[in-house]
Amino acid sequence: MKVRLKIWRQKNGTSPGRFATYATPELNANMSFLEMLDVVNEDLANRGEEPIAFDHDCREGICGTCSLVINGRPHGPRKGVATCQTYMRSFRDGDEIVVEPFRARAFPIIKDLVSDRKAFDRIQQAGGFISVRTGSAPDANAIPVPKEIADLAMDAAQCIGCGACVAACKNASAMLFVAAKVSHLNLLPQGQPEKDRRVKAMVAQMDAEGFGSCTVTGSCEAVCPKSISLDFISKMNRDYAAALLKGDPKKPTAGGTS
Ligand code: SF4
Ligand code: FES
Q: Is the pTM of this model over 0.70?
């Protein structure tokens, strides 16, 4: 098969971008979308032209690095898969395919199809961790966790931090990502001591990064390659409200807590 690509090309974050059109060489329908871009890049390089910059790493739906908007949909036409798990057999011979980067004010474009998603790292650094000692793996397994809680925490932990939820949202909200990361730890016994501090710090960092508000359109859940549920946003809102009502922890004084 062959397809026609309309690809966003942008030299850097300060230059204006534009769509460039490429006719692909002959492709195998069982190639992944990223392998197709590899073939196109090889062709461009052989002709002395600048290859298209795009993000990728594991190429098996684990790392969250790949990040293309394909025909207007983050991660392409298939539900529940990342860009790297999208195959050319999802398209027809002769199709025109429009490829853009994930766009959001908090995800500035670095080059072509690569956007800077370090805002997610900073949100994670604000509270997406457990700083108490949890012991070695056997010790951790010895802490009883009800099955339904363990399952829910695992569902939240599936978030690969790709940012498709932000790219799909008309408000560029990061609520689904933050809700997954907060819920994963807030559900588990090991996450309880820092539960309130975590949710407040991660929400504050999300706001500081310039992500928009959630208006519950559900576009995030629809494009999420891990099908993270909107229910986690409700859960995070409950955790956040409870943390605010409790207020800040009392500061220790010379004579003990005041
Ligand atoms: S919630 Fe889904 S779409 Fe958003 S960052 Fe996590 S895996 Fe990606
Ligand atoms: S390259 Fe790792 S999830 Fe796609």
A: yes
